[in-house]
Write a structure and sequence with these properties.
It contains 16 helices and 17 strands. It is an alpha/beta fold. The strands form 4 sheets. A 9-stranded mixed β-sheet has the order 13-14-12-11-10-9-8-5-15, with helices on both faces. Helix 4 packs antiparallel against helix 5 and helix 6 packs parallel to helix 7. The longest helix has 21 residues. The chain is globular, with a radius of gyration of 23 Å. The relative contact order is 0.11. The mean pLDDT is about 90.
Length: about 475
Amino acid sequence: MYKLQAQNHKTEAELNEVARLFFFDTDEQIDISHASHIEDGKLNVKITVNERKFECEYMFDEEYLSEKQISKLNKLSMYKALSGFTGRSLPWGSLTGVRPTKLAYELLHENGDIKAAVAQLRDVFMVSDEKVKLTEEILNAQRGYYGFDEHAVNLYVHIPFCVSKCSYCSFITDILTPKYPYVKDYVGALIKEIRSTVDFLTEKGCRIASVYVGGGTPTALDSDSLARVLQAAYCGKVEYTCEAGRPDTITEEKLEVMARYGVNRVCINPQSLCDETLNRIGRRHSADDFYAAFNHARGFGFDINTDLIAGLEGESCDTFCRTVESIVSLKPENVTVHTLSRKNGSLLIQSGKKCDIDYYAEVGRMVENSHRMLSAAGYLPYYTYRQKRMVGNLENTGYCLPNKQCFNNITTMEECLSVAACGAGAIGKRLRGNPLKIEREANLRNVRLYLEQFEDRLAKKLIFLA
């Protein structure tokens, strides 16, 4: 455990983001204090860690430092102190945000050159050479896809149902059982919300740039319910993705429904192709079930996204790399390599199991080897993002075959297009102003409350989109 004291609550909260990266699972008592002051054009930061003192000094030419600049320098100082105290460096340096590429785009706007922009990640924020190179590759792969258009909106449709709970999952989803009471009413309300939203946006002169039906597991719905939702969400010949993340929910009939209503990209996510791992994490399917579902989807001509997780309980680097090798042999259009995130609310974190340095190093090798293997097979990294409590301060990275970037993944992760979100727990985003400001609007997560307050919430949502 660690205890941190800073000059005020806001600074303490910001510095805790860095401290957690170093002392997430430690049982050792660590006492940290922070103080800073500005004098004669210098920001002086003093940090004490268990009586070891660290001091950083920064010169500045501006008349004053903004709160944002001071925050970045405080975090950088904390990173330097804790790195010196522990002898460890982290792959993303002092960066704690979920979208490192967003910072890279800010630096690109200032510099006008990708190489100069990403070099600042290394020189200013102490990001590793490996992650600097990854960021440069991603910015290059996003050319032609990244950009703000005030008249374009992504449509997101949420299905908050699953057939079982995986050990690592913290999403608020309802487990579908034969006695679950709300499916019919939920599908009816969701269809009304989709149609009202799309009609409203069309009247405003907006166009739907892409459609993404996610969850949960949309294919947990029966074929008829799935068909009704997909038909309502169809918005013409745009990228139209449907998550079918659980291979045990995919049938020939559901794939036919997707094809009939315009879906052109399907997510089939094994997470691992080791049956022992799948059983351990609560997946109710085998590796063979994944292969069967993948081959059926191929028969319909969909682009296919697959998700893998590095760091699942009991897996070695060799086990994980065998999964990557098998996926590469299938040549899905997209492969996303997630680093395990030990999230609050998951069965994994509730188990109380700790991680050690050897485990962090093993997961780091998994991520590094997957990048090497996918790159050698012709895949390009094209988006990345991070999550809280992520093992080893690593990242999730999406890879694609050339010209097979998922438009929705890029524009949603980079937050450069507005998102109209439908369904319980879905979060919409509205981009306004110059510079762009992001406003968010969330639907109620609880399905019963979503249904009870549907009309009032729908009216408020349309006001938000106006």
